[in-house]
């Protein structure tokens, strides 16, 4: 029998050297609040006790040795906020801490079905007092502003003094940047200032304000103790911290329970009375309803999630655990309010500054779209809400029309300080447009297309006409861009970019035609709003049709861009121990060679598969695989998917194996700084698009399932056009079943079948 | 009769709005000390009173939003140093200043034959006291550490108190950066700290030290008063300043003379006794020999300079003045100690941080080489002295062999913070190699080639083998470089770069062969020192011979690089009022179009003219002229030269006209921040290479003179192979004459003639 926890992740013996890593793996979140899995009690094991609110950031100035027009003046980064988790315990004046004393039993577990983190430890103080310490923590999906900690202390061999101190600490800082953008940002530690710190109505309260982004945060704590012992309690406070102290005359074997309710609420500009009352209401309600109520609600929410989402893998427990771990963390990380999104490290760390990238559209959104389309809708709505910022950005870049989405952002402003791998990655416009269409196709949400989608498509399409041009042969060329592969920059006619641009232009034209015919009033409103002429819309279709795509007739290969094959191949032997290359080589040396950080042409062949024939894909795969380093975590999942499509099943499984347990096994050795959300969703894609061969083309669902040798069977569910379809793949056949909704025609191995 | 001062520049009426500009135009220098033409007396007309020591800089940190391997951590910039010029005068307690009172007569003049700056003003104080103020200033070419100010005050209508205060001020700052790299740097004002400020032996003395570059500066002042009036004198001082005060009981019409000797001496690390004594010796000698001695020596030095250098233009006084102004400022700006060079703004301003660029080799060095070859030798020696730094830089960039010269530097460290228009401009290696060969060709200084030149050539050649590659056809390609034109960046096979690289490789091979055959001992020493194999040297010649140069057979044009013609043409109408473009557009938008900041291919066609036939040059000129903005001051002179070569005489004169009076007429409206040294030398090139059609090819001097319609005749001298040759071009013929040295065979209009 396997010892792997299929519905959770367990630490069975305390490993202090893994404390920073486990802070990430045991992180909890609900898409609004995220908190690292640090212990309640003060512990110095080199970690970083962070709590984050999605979309809550401060600005910092960007500096450049030489600065040019259109460079962003400032960036913003997600802030570490008021610490509400901390609870210290003193046993006969000796502070409970795993740094000292003796640990007798220890188990920590995050439960994917319950959505809670528990810890249980029997600990003997240096003086010999033995206690059983048990804690539970949840960040509520039911009430997104609420986090609850529950601790229970049982004195096992003594009567004596137990002091419990429950803190709300406003003196928090981000990690200082260490010249590695994957870890943190150059903040000074004074970005979040405590405005007010007080005790009111048996609650602690800290109101903070950011230094320059004009965002505020109110954080409340209420503690509820339950014990049969005698105790007294009081508060202590200073400028930046409140603590609620309980002095207990403890008796052997009598339990002491403390429930701690922590409420976070961020706001813009000034805190008003209504908002304040609302926050008070949340904490009062929680205090009344108690922990068990929220624990039950948490389970109900998560049950629903798993019903839609779970993938059952028979015969490979490590993978089973890994994929659930990933899906659970994706749920914990994703903003569901259309004002926030899902960042590169979710809400588990400060790396990449909490920014949202194209990762959302191309890697993460498919997971939500085909399991939880309501969440997907909020992510697409987020991009619509950014459209004005994107129009502004296009103007800053001196374009006369259209919108240019930021390469990295939280609030819509471009935060990339290195344009060759930032602003030059115009493909983000195409990625967002692609996803708008995929969303509408998978949900039949034509209302979204009419109200918002068409506007995104048209405004992004306009930008291609700004940066591309028709050459003397009438071909549409796009110069000086960077594709997904950041090891090749500022090139002409990157195949991925050009094809995604063509797709964007064509779909913008189609959307305009749809509105014109079917929704003339909305069409009129839209063209007035964005001031567009019909000739411009016609031009979208011309540019799409005439889009130039370089091809090497001699090699029978697609070059990644016009000049890709003119460059020499990279010396992989010489650089074997120097990955990721960009941390070891000057960009020019990398750009100068045929070497890819990640899937680029191969990604185009996945996303726009219909454009390429199978033989072509095989040749290209063979060529590009040899020169791809996978230095980006966005790479192996795409190679896995395409390996499956091309029947390279061993490779497919190997690449999948690299990605499904990246974080849980800390394969990149940097999970302590946060999870890799795109890779997590990539693992889901590797199963659904890869092994199961799912594609959605022209509104139809297609499958071409393969069962890896390592598995006995697998089963998953897909939400599609208001249905839930269950797919079960075994050695001999594949079964499709409708769990919810009307029957549907799908394709299995190119054969049309009706699923009921 | 023309009112233009043919041997100087004169300000006849004080124009306070031109004060900052005139600080540049009236700047004095001797290649070591440079001082702006600010008044002696405190004046607030918005200028910047700067004094600079060539090669005297401090470091500052470079910051990047995203930083990668091989990016420089720090830059350095030339410092404004101790102010020794300042002298205040009080007339019956009213401070002499042109800010107030009445100016009756005024004339200021810089004399190109004497090398001194004079000012004469009759001034009436607000109370009605009238004085004649006369000053002379020189920065000595004879004693490079010495600057002298002489002032004479004559009370014209009163007896009374005159107080003269002569300062040495250590509290000096650079201009704060204003987001324009052409003006200044982001210093904090504390880069130069006063260590010691004292009065000793009737001299003021300030010793300063840089904050981080470990350079020191000692500055002494000694004042010598001569007057028949009664006076007393004393010193005042504070932490950062010394002043020598003279209280004079002045009598009407009796002159008061003050001579002020200021000595500057910079040093590395610590000041030692020897050095200190040396500096004391200089000031004591000056105090003994007196101003008139140095004035005479100044004239002798400058007479020699003009004998070698002057260009006589009959019929165009504005040009006559302009070209002399330029040549005089070039002499004032150039370092002649092999440890310093000539910066973009000479020693007249802080723009471009006092850095030395490729401007030296390709624009400025020809002027010195063919007029003052001893100075040229020191400039080439400077590059040899930088070779170790260049080898270090190559290693920093992860190259295994060779040397990479910094794009911009003072001390040899790369200071460019924007690699697409910095490090990517590898052509600087080729530019330096080109100049090494031109130097040896023009001087027959084979000893230099053996001792230093060959090492430069071979180490720079090695770098081309590091960044270039042989493709499958055996062609040598160089990818991801930026040519001279900074409006097109990170391209493959820039024609200029590839041809200069081929030239470098070929000459490195030739130099190695020369040493091997003629100087075997030195050859052995060299190959041991730099650890090179013969096969590597052979490979230089193979790469040179197989160098790929793109050519468009259809257009019959050379593209600037592989993909230049794939881009659309720039919209010149839309951007008419937005020059320089890089201050108005994001780099990507500029890179994306066919638009040139400056001569690039056209520069190659000038420097390596033998590679291209005349018809080709005509076609290319016609094409590139239309798309070149000349946003760089390095451009019009090259277009002028090539226009002359191609018989486009009107264009040639127009372009020349744009460049010969750029600074004296403030055509770029930024001369207040300093002169444009490369453009100044470009004007010389426009005459010598342009109108006179001089070329040096295969060791032979060739001319093809043309007399512009605007001129009656012109005459110039050229130093070549230990001769001075005078060339006089009139309407009907050209005369050549040897002024110094043996007869020589030259070519005039392709005909070989013997000059005696």
TrEMBL record, chains A, B:
> What region holds the Glycoside hydrolase family 65 C-terminal domain?
694-747
For whether the record's keyword set contains tRNA processing, the answer is no
Name the InterPro entries for this protein. 6-hairpin_glycosidase_sf, 6hp_glycosidase-like_sf, Gal_mutarotase_sf_dom, GH65_N, Glyco_hydro_65_C, Glyco_hydro_65_M, Glyco_hydro_65_N, Malt_Pase/Glycosyl_Hdrlase
Record-annotated Glycoside hydrolase family 65 N-terminal domain positions? 10-265
Q: Please name the catalytic residues of this protein.
A: 486
Write out the GO biological process terms. Answer: carbohydrate metabolic process
Q: What's the domain of life for this entry?
A: Bacteria
**Can you provide one Gene Ontology molecular function annotated for this UniProt record?**
glycosyltransferase activity
Where is the Glycoside hydrolase family 65 central catalytic domain positioned along the sequence? 324-685
Q: Which residues bind substrate?
A: 358-359, 597-598
Tagged with keyword tRNA-binding: no
State the UniProt keywords alphabetically.
Glycosyltransferase, Hydrolase, Transferase
Q: Please provide an example of a Pfam family that matches this protein in its UniProt record.
A: Glyco_hydro_65m
Recorded family membership: Belongs to the glycosyl hydrolase 65 family.
Q: What is this protein called?
A: Glycoside hydrolase family 65 protein
User: What organism is this sequence from?
Assistant: Vallitalea guaymasensis
């Amino acid at each position: 029998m396997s010892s792997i926890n299929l519905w959770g992740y367990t630490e069975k013996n305390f490993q202090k050297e893994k404390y920073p890593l486990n802070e990430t793996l045991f992180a909890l979140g609900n898409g609004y609040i995220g908190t690292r899995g640090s212990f309640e009690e003060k512990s110095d094991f080199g970690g970083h006790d962070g709590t984050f609110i999605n979309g809550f950031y401060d600005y910092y100035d960007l500096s450049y040795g030489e600065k040019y027009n259109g460079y962003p003046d400032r960036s913003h980064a997600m802030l570490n906020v008021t610490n509400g988790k901390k609870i210290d315990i003193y046993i006969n004046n000796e502070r409970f801490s795993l740094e000292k004393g003796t640990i007798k039993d220890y188990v920590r577990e995050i439960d994917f079905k319950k959505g809670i983190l528990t810890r249980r430890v029997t600990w003997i103080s240096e003086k010999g007092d033995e206690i059983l310490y048990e804690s539970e923590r949840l960040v509520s999906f039911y009430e997104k502003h609420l986090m609850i900690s529950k601790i229970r202390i049982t004195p096992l061999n003594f009567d004596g003094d137990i002091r419990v101190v429950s803190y709300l600490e406003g003196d928090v800082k981000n990690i200082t940047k260490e010249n590695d953008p994957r870890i943190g940002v150059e903040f000074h530690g004074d970005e979040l200032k405590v405005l007010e710190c007080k005790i009111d109505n048996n609650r602690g309260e800290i109101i903070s304000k950011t230094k320059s982004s004009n965002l505020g945060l109110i954080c409340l704590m209420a503690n509820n103790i339950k014990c049969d012992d005698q105790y007294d309690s009081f508060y202590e406070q200073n400028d930046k911290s409140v603590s609620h102290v309980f002095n207990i005359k403890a008796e052997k074997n009598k339990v002491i329970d403390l429930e701690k309710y922590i409420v976070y609420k961020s706001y813009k500009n000034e805190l008003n009375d209504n908002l304040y009352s609302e926050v008070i209401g949340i904490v009062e309600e929680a205090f009344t309803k108690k922990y068990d109520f929220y624990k039950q609600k948490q389970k109900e929410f998560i049950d629903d999630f798993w019903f839609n989402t779970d993938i059952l893998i028979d015969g490979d427990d490590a993978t089973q655990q890994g994929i659930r771990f990933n899906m659970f963390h994706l749920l914990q990380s994703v903003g569901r309010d259309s004002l926030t999104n899902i960042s590169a490290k979710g809400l588990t760390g400060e790396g990449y500054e909490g920014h949202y990238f194209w990762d959302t559209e191309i890697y993460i959104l498919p997971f939500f779209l085909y399991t939880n389309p309501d969440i997907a809708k909020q992510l697409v709505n987020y991009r619509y809400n950014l459209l004005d910022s994107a129009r502004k950005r296009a103007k800053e870049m001196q374009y006369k029309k259209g919108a240019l989405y930021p390469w990295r952002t939280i609030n819509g402003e471009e935060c990339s300080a290195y344009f060759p791998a930032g602003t030059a990655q115009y493909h983000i416009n195409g990625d967002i447009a692609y996803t708008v269409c995929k969303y509408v196709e998978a949900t039949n949400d034509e209302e979204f297309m009419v109200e918002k989608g068409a506007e995104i498509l048209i405004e992004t399409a306009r930008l291609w006409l700004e940066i591309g041009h028709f050459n003397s042969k009438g071909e549409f060329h796009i110069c000086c861009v960077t594709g997904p592969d950041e090891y090749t920059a500022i090139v002409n006619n990157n195949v991925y970019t050009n094809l995604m641009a063509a797709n964007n232009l064509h779909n913008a034209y189609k959307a305009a035609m749809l509105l014109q015919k079917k929704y003339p009033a909305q069409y009129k409103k839209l063209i007035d709003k964005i001031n567009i002429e019909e000739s411009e819309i016609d031009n979208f279709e011309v540019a799409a049709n005439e889009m130039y795509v370089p091809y090497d007739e001699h090699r029978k290969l697609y070059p990644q861009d016009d000049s890709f094959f003119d460059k020499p191949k990279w010396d992989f032997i010489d650089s074997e121990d120097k990955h990721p290359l960009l941390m070891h080589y000057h960009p020019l040396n990398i750009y100068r060679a045929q070497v890819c950080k990640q899937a680029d042409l191969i990604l185009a062949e996945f996303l726009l598969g219909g454009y390429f024939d199978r033989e072509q894909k095989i040749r290209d795969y063979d060529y590009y695989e040899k020169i791809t380093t996978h230095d980006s975590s966005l790479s192996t999942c795409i190679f896995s998917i395409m390996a499956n499509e091309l029947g390279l099943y061993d490779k497919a499984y190997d690449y999948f194996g690299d990605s499904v347990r990246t974080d849980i096994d800390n394969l990149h050795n940097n999970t302590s700084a946060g999870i890799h959300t795109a890779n997590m969703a990539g693992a889901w894609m590797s199963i659904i698009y890869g092994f199961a061969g799912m594609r959605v083309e022209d509104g139809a669902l297609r499958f071409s399932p393969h069962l890896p040798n390592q598995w006995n069977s697998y089963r998953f569910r897909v939400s599609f056009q208001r249905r839930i379809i269950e797919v079960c793949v075994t050695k001999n056949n594949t079964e499709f079943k409708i769990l919810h909704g009307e029957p549907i025609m799908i394709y299995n191995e190119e054969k049309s079948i009706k699923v009921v």
